[in-house]
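Dear all,

This email documents one entry for the complex benchmark we are building for the journal club exercise. For each entry we list the sequence lines for every component of the assembly. Then comes the predicted three-dimensional structure of the complex as a C-alpha cell string, followed by one or two observations. Please use this as the template for your own entries, and keep the labels exactly as they appear.
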Amino acid sequence: MYKIAAVGDKDSIYGFASLGLDVFPVTQAHEAKLTMKKLADSDYAVIYITEKLLSLIPEEIEKYKDSPLPCIIPIPGVNGNTGIGMKNVSRSVEQAVGSDIIS
Amino acid sequence: MAVMSVNPTRMELTNLKRKLVTARRGHKLLKDKRDELMRRFLELVRENKRLRAEVEAGIKQANVKMSLARSSMSDEVLNVALELPAQEMSLEITEKNVMSVMIPQFDVSFKTADESGIYSYGYAFTSADLDDAVKSLSEIMPKMIRLAEVEKSCSLMASEIEKTRRRVNALEHVMIPQYEDTIKYIAMKLDENERSATTRLMKVKDMMLEQSHHYSERAN
C-alpha cells in the first residue's frame, strides 16, 4: 500500500489533509530537502509539492526524475501559479521531440 | 569515407557482412520503437497539458475558498478542524509496460467509502466556506491522481525516446555507413589482389615459354 503526501507552506496544503493525504508543512529549503528524502525513502508514491518550494530545491527533484517512484508533482500554492508545472511538461516534450511542438 | 582498421581478409569480410545485416535489422526495429513511443508520448502529453490546466484552475479556486474560510475563523479552530482527518487515502500501484518503458498506474482506495468522510469536523464551529473549500479540493482530487500518473509516464517516456533516438541516429549515421565503407574497401582490396595474381601468372607463363622456345630470337 502506497501513500500520498503534500509538501509546502501550511496554508497551501492544509486542505488536502481532510482528503486523507499526509501533509508536511515546510517552508525552508533545508527542511524541504530532508522531508523529500524522508518521503522518497518511505512508501509515498505521489508527492505534491508547492511550486514555490520546488523552485528552492530543483536539484533534489531532478534525482527522482528517472525512477518510476515517487512521482513528484508541482501544484500551485496560495501565492499563485508560477508556471513551473507547465514548464516541466514543455521540457519533457523538448527532450523527446527536440523542440516544443505543443504549446 | 570511414573505414575501420581491419585486415582486408575474406574472413573479416564475412564477419562484417553479418554485422551489417544485424545493424540494419536493429536500426529498423529501433526506428519502429521510436515512432510508436513518440505517438503514445504525444497523446499522453496532450492529456497532461489539459489535466494540468484543469488541476491548476481547480486548486486556485479551492485556495480562494480556503482563504475565505480562514478569514472567518480563528487559526485554532481551523487547525483543530483539519488536524485529525477521518479519511485516509492509499494507492495501489501496478506497472504497465509500454514499449519496454514501465509506466505506473494508480488505483486509489479510501478508508471510508462514505462521501462525507472528507469532513473531519463537526459543523458547529466552522464556517461553510471551509466545507466549500474541502469539497472543491475533493472534486479535483481524482484529476490530480491522474495528473501524477500521466506526468510521470511522460517524463519516463521522454527520456526513453531520447535514448532510442540517439541509438537510431548512431546506427543510421555512424555504424551502418562505416560497415558499408569497410566492406567496399575489403572487396576492392581482394579484387585487386586477385587481378595482380592473374597478371603475375600470365607474366610467369610468358617467361617460361620464352625460356623453352626462344621466340624473341626467332623473330629476328
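Observations: Chain A touches chain B at residues 1-4, 11-12, 14-21, 45-46, 48, 65-66, 68-69, 71, 73, 75-78, 80-81, 85-86, 88-89, 92-93, 95-97, 102 (CB under 8 Å). The first strand of chain A starts at residue 3 and ends at 8.
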